[in-house]
Amino acid sequence: MKGGSAAVSYEAQISRTSLYWLLLAQFALVLPHVGGLPPWLFVVCMLCAVWRVQIYREKLPFASGAMRALLSGAALLAVLLSFLDELGLDATVTFLILVFFLKLLETRRARDMYVTLFLGYFVATTPLLYGQSLVGTAYAVLCYLLLTAALLSLHYEGGDGPGAAMARALGLMLQGLPLLAVLFLLFPRVDPLWLAPMPSAERKAGISEKVSLGSFGQFARSAEVAFRVTFAAGVPANADLYWRGLVLEGFDGSSWTVLPASMQAAPRPELTGGGAFSYDVVVEPTHQRWLFALPLAVSVQPGVIETADFTLRSERPLRARFSYSVTSQRVDSLRVALTPEQRRMNLSLPGQENPAARALGAQLRSQFGADRRIVDAVLARFSQEPFVYTLQPPAFATNAIDGFLFDSRQGYCEHYASAFVFLLRAAGVPTRMVGGYLGGEVNPFEAYLSVRQMDAHVWAEVWLEDAGWVRFDPTAQVAPERVLNGIESVLLARDQFRPDGLLGWMAYSDVAWLQGVRLWWDAVNYGWNNWVLNYSRADQLRWLDHWLGRSSIGLLAQVLVLSLVAISVLLLVWLLRGLLLRRRPPASFAAAAVVWLLGRLQAGAGQQAARRPQESMIAYCARVAEDWPQLKGLLADFAAVYSALAYADLRYHWPRRQRLHGLVLVLALRVLQLRLGLVRPVHGRAAPLPPPQAHGGGPAT
Amino acid sequence: MLAALRVRMEPHVERWLLRRNPPAETVRLDHRRIFIFPTRAGLVYLALVLLLLVTAINYQNNAIYLLAFLLVGQLVVAMFLTYANLAGLRLRRGSCVPAFAGDRVAFRLHLQREAGRRHYAIAAGWPGQGVARSSLDGQSEAVVELYHDAPRRGLLRPGRVRVETVYPLGLFRAWSWQDLQLACWVYPRPRMVRPLPVAARALGAGRCSDQQRDEFSNIRPWRPSDPPRQVLWKAFAKQQPLMTMQFEEAQQQELWIDEVLVPASNPEDRLSALCYAVLQLSAQSTPFGLRLGGREIAPSQGLEHRRRLLEQLARHGFSGTPA
User: Does A45 reside within a domain?
Assistant: First the structure.
């Protein structure tokens, strides 16, 4: 017998309902980790679940103390061995899931189940550390729902089947939504308390700082969104959507790289003249620092650096979705002078590879002389010779550019740009490669542009004496539709495109409604990113300033506390509504209204016939009906309906209430008619004449 | 130290409770009578919420913020529901089942709900004693039996009964201490004595409880106190109502259980012996009376007589009446 004040003990065995909700929740919890964490983990989880079911069926015993110690030790060892190289977030999550399942073997009583379930709430949250997609979050909420149902079934065994616990859990969560909203909007977003380890599954996404032949092929199949753009005014034409991200000036003989010098922050010249337009970009996490913008881009956003090569960069690698505002100006060229060092870098062709291309470059120089004429000659070469745009070009181990230019003549943007830059550098024209995206898809639901990984593109910039850096896209010579209409048109036309994944498949199906669903879903995700995930302290303070005229974190906290109190009070009133309305007898308003109406009627006729303290509604109505026979049927109906509501505990009988209210309304109209003398009294004592029994005070029956 | 503080504070708490929740046979639980506090699980839950919040802050993760606040909302709703689950509940004192010292007394407690209200997983009892659980879902009243140890003979007043609930999530406990003026007599613990302290005041002499010499006299309908061997089982087996054979003793006599016949000197021991005698004699069909402390209870038979005698033994030496 236990002492203490706890009268209720949690020694009760776990019921079947509770156990099944728990197992269901656990199954749901590990599902998103399949594929990400070591496979043996799931085998162990399955074994634990089966063991627990067998315990319930009394086929197997609970794990003994020694057994539990052994299993825990083995689990720890297995985690250490599996994650030898890095004990990061993955190892932690694996260990948590293991503990979560091993705990099953000793979950005997309700008390043990709390720990298991609370652990479950945490495990359900961990996938969101890897990515905060709408689907992922919704799935975590579903897991929470299952866990809450399991928690609830410890205390509630409704006779309405196992679904009752789930319905109640759902109700519990829904009623908490106002609090959730207030907290989410007003809880001050503070800076990280300490630097947390990031998921080890962190992988760089999107274009990398090193481009070599073939490195863009991976993107062409990916329908994943790279970034989304909302334009303040209209969306420019597809051919103007050259999203500059990386300027690749370094060349090591086979691949192009970004030079550290050009990544330095540099003051941007003033935007002069017209043609400026602004837009907001929300870029998906890439774990890199590139930001994409249309030339010539200016951004005053904190955390965004304007670099010397006229790109924008983030101060930190993009671990989460990042949004920034940009103002761009349409320019024909980037007018800057070229330092000798820059000239040298943009002419360098180290190594001896691709001798034919080098020779061709030298020949072009001697043949045409002027830089601009050399450029035109190279472009003409691409359009006149039988070059083909394809995503499956033959690969060459060495002298890849020679192979492409003189042998296969098949390739995609990267091949054309590489060859273009190589030839021009060989001819002594300062040229560089630019990486980014071209085009994008306008979403009709939300009027924004989504740019996908398959829109990745490289082109070239040539420095011309009279103009500065001028953009040339050699791919346009071969596949102009790529530039004008976007990548899909090219790929669909050549029937060589098969994007990955469900969304990719939907993107290129001919079914119109599938297209609609895909675009709608993209719009929903955009809203989720824009309104929920990007919600930040800046937004909080802006709202506060908008509503209250001033803003500070302290004020935010005050508003939060006040709102929480207000919402809590409303919530309490809502939850206790049955209790608060208790004192009022049912239908008392209707009764009071009728008594008042009849009182006015009687008083108008000079009668004293108020309802007596102990008089029932039926008796009172009958008494008044004697004076006013016209109302007899109406009053009898009212009295009957009222009595049923008031005394038979039918207060929630909705049709009856409606009928009661209807009767009161009709009665009020009739009384008004009588008072105004619109209806002549049929007969009886109630009349403009004084009643015969003036001092009766009521019928003398 | 905490225990010492508790002991020192207890009278103050008692007085305060007495003022706040005066004794009554029927109470309706309202905000003045209900206390609420997080359970240990509730505190762990709170720690979990904090952990999620810190994670959200450190990873600047709005989705985790969302989930942490979902848990907060759930916590607050659960707190209100726990309170609402007790609020409006009516407690009414019911009858009690007396017991012998050393056994457990059963008190009946009526739980009643108001129209349109529901109460789930209500537990009632005393700390360290048994706990009864009940729900008021469809039915408007539930009766729970609360057992309380009865170590000593006399009037057992278990004091304030604790009614509590942790529904729906077990994160909060709402409770109420109500003095329903529960009281029940505790009979002496029977102690075997031989010979029985019984005197026969008879026309004839001698002690006689030997059934063999009795003569069959009558058959009458069965009464609960009838000894089994006098029941006409054969007739019952033929689906006839239970009947009892009556025997008339060969010699008419009155049996008296008398305090002075008990050898023990300790008054409690004497009462225990008398109790044993009452139980023995009431299993037989002989009328018997009791002489105790100068009072006499006239000879009679039956369950009611037995109850009167046992209660007389229980209240011997105490003044006042149980409620």
Answer: yes
Asked if the structure places residue A7 within a domain, the reply is no
- Measured between CB atoms, does A649 come within 8 Å of chain B? yes
The verdict on A687 touching B (C-beta cutoff 8 Å) is no
- B88 contacts on A by Cβ (under 8 Å): 578-579, 582
Listed residue (A288, A309, A306) closest to A298, CA to CA: A306
CA distances from A500 to A516, A519, B287 (A): 19, 17, 98
Burial of A27 per CB tally in 10 Å (0-12, 13-18, 19+): middle
State the smallest CA–CA distance between residue B113 and chain A in angstroms. Answer: 11
Those residues with Cβ within 8 angstroms of residue A397's Cβ, 6 or more apart along the chain or in another chain? none
A7 and B124 within 8 Å at the Cβ level: the answer is yes
Which domain covers residue B32, as residue numbers? 13-187
Whether A683 is covered by a domain: the verdict is no
Residues A302 and A228 in one domain: yes
Percent of chain A that is helix, strand, coil (3-state, to 5): 50, 15, 35
How many domains is chain B built from? 2
A630: Cβ contacts below 8 Å, ≥ 6 apart: A670, A674, A679, A681, A682
**Please, which pLDDT band fits residue A1 given cuts at 50, 70 and 90?**
very low
How far is residue A255's CA from residue A253's CA, in Å, rounded to a whole number? 6
Give, in order, the Cα–Cα distances in Å from A530 to each of A50, A229, B69.
43, 11, 19
Residue-number span of the structural domain to which A595 is assigned: 588-676
Respond yes or no: is residue A473 known to be catalytic: yes
User: Which residue in this structure is represented by tokens 């120089």?
Assistant: A365
Question: Are residues A528 and A619 both part of a single domain?
Answer: no
- Model confidence band, residue A272 (pLDDT cutoffs 50, 70, 90): low
CA distance B81 to chain A (A): 7
Give the orientation angle of helix A371-384 with respect to helix A355-368, to 10 degrees.
120
pLDDT digits (tens, 9 = 90+) for A158-198: 666 677 888 889 999 999 999 999 999 999 888 777 665 55
Known active-site residue A143: no
Strands (DSSP E) contained in A387-455 are 388-389, 410-411, 431-438, 441-443, 448-452
The answer to whether residue A690 is domain-embedded is no
